[in-house]
Write a structure and sequence with these properties.
Blueprint: H1 2-11, H2 28-52, H3 56-83, H4 91-108, H5 112-141, H6 145-171
Helix pairs in contact: 1-2, 1-3, 1-6, 2-3, 2-4, 2-5, 3-6, 5-6
């Protein structure tokens, strides 16, 4: 369960993507889609970082992001199956994916220290944004108690990811 929560947390993170807040709060299937989409985005971003960085701290951070998000998405899928929920595509997921693809393309043009700094700075900003979205939108909107509990646990894990990213950022010149 902790891994699933970490996955939801991590899933929501990676690229500084503004979550499109719809007029209506998202329902549980939409929240699940947002979380899963974010996890896939994080894995792809981590893979990009691992292919480009030569910095040991950035590499270690990206490895932990890839590992956590892959594990979390597996746990998320298991919970969805247990709850008999089918993730529902929505405007937030679509905007999240579109913005992440654009950011990944920007990062892909960078190399060396410039890449490392942009990647980690983005991770810090993204985590702050995702933590805020979890607190103000996703957790309050979740109706299923198990999903809500996982999101709350994810928030705690996400806060740890934010601190890790800030630590790595402080060491980059």
């Amino acid at each position: 369960m902790k891994t699933f929560i970490a996955a939801i947390s991590v899933a929501c993170l990676m690229f500084a993507v503004p979550l499109a807040i719809a007029a209506d709060a998202p329902n549980d299937p939409q929240i699940a889609h947002i979380a899963y989409s974010a996890g896939v985005i994080d894995v792809e971003a981590a893979k990009l970082a691992l292919s480009k960085t030569k910095n040991a701290d950035v590499k270690a951070f990206a490895e932990s992001m890839q590992k956590d998000h892959e594990a979390v998405n597996e746990m998320a899928l298991a919970l969805l199956k247990k709850l008999n929920l089918t993730p529902e595509d929505n405007a937030t997921s679509q905007e999240f994916t579109k913005t992440a693809e654009e950011k990944r393309a920007e990062l892909g043009k960078l190399d060396g220290a410039a890449f490392d700094k942009a990647y980690i700075d983005n991770e810090v900003a993204y985590h702050k944004q995702v933590n805020g979205a979890l607190e103000t939108l996703l957790i309050p909107s979740a109706q299923n108690a198990e999903l809500k509990s996982l999101l709350e646990t994810g928030l705690k894990l996400f806060q740890g990811h934010e601190q890790h990213a800030e630590h790595v950022a402080a060491g980059l010149k």
